[in-house]
UniProtKB/TrEMBL annotation:
Domain C2: 193-311
Pfam families, per database record: C2, SMP_LBD
Protein name: Extended synaptotagmin-1-like
Main location group: membrane
GO CC annotation, single: endoplasmic reticulum membrane
Protein localization: Membrane
Keyword Manganese: no
Listed InterPro entries: C2_dom (IPR000008), C2_domain_sf (IPR035892), Extended_Synaptotagmin (IPR051634), SMP_LBD (IPR031468), Synaptotagmin_SMP (IPR039010)
Organism of provenance: Xenopus laevis (African clawed frog)
Amino acid sequence: MWILYRCWKPSTEPSAIKCQDKAKEQAKVPHKVTDREFERLRYLQVLVNNSWPYITKYLEKFLRWRIQPLIRSRFKYLTNFHFFDIDFGNKAPQVTHMRVQSDPEKKQILLDLKISLNAAVMVNVGISKTIMAGVKSVKLEGTLRIILAPLIPDVPFTEAVNIYFPRRPVLHLQWTGLTNLLNIPGLHTMTERMIVDQIANFMSDILFYLQNALRIHVLEARNLVANDFFSKKSDPFVVVRGGGTVGKTRVISKNLNPQWNQTFEILFSDLPGQEIEFEVLDKNVQRDDSLGSCKIAVPHVLKKKFIDKWIRLDNVKSGELHIKVETLKLFSDRDKLEKVLNLNKRPRPPKSEELSSVALYTVIQKARGLPVIRPKKCKLNPLATVEVSVTDTVKRTGAQINSGEPEWKERLQFLIKDPRGERMQKN
């Protein structure tokens, strides 16, 4: 359990010592690599092609054990949702560019691979035993980051290999028979979005812990685009994504200069290249339209400690978003809890969310003595998941086949308002 504490304070002019320290820090920062420094390495494609059959096996497990339970839990009418045929074909992703960075202080090597996949696949989904829809082609583009860290003087010269997408990849799915499955509003977009979120936030927890806490204030917007033809207005709200977390503000009806004044708190790891994404949307009955988006680099926030700025929205004619982000320091000293609770009680704008004071980390290792239900012929193997809740926050582990002693070895994190009155429950 860690206590959250604000680690910034306003100052007028930096001292000479701070300036010297800043210069030293900048000298230690790894070289920022631009797109021009990407190198074309065609021989790497041979390695990817030979690894593709094994990667597809992992992708099949990813869909069955991650996406399938997620869809079942999100939609009450899809509790029997099932992936049937899963075949990603023989065409491996194309590695178009690669760049390598090193950080001697952290004893790590970073490889960024620009990948592009445009291939025919066969992924059929349905309810119970009935196939209702499928995906016949996939288009995926993004930058895959591979981290070798920490480097050691013994074979294989690194203790861990971490793979993740530092930025959300672009994913397009071409569906077949989707009409049968889309009687439930929003299923198409939600399914595709959930897959992208899972891919974007995929990372190894072997080395990197969520040890940085950011408090994100979505304050207001101005000069938004009017999407409603008749009223010349929009119904805007903001979606905040980062660190595997998605948050939404309330909807402000018929307003091009809305004020939300809402706060989100997100835990981040030390994985490089992470971003906080803000997407402004216009609320509609069938599909929410984009009013623009913007991003902030997490390392930039951690360095500055506090940011308060207007950001121009991308991909729209006009619109700016006013956000404020502050870094929270984590303490393991319980004596500081009372001070943090008192700071969180200070006067704040009306309708503001209650602030967190503690970050709770829990690891779900394994279970013993679970009843094993043998599936009948043509039935699915039973899956076991663990549901952990703290007050209104509910998190679930991935699904594992229930052998009586399933293992998860998953780490779950919770932000707690007041630990003196909240309890954790496991189901």
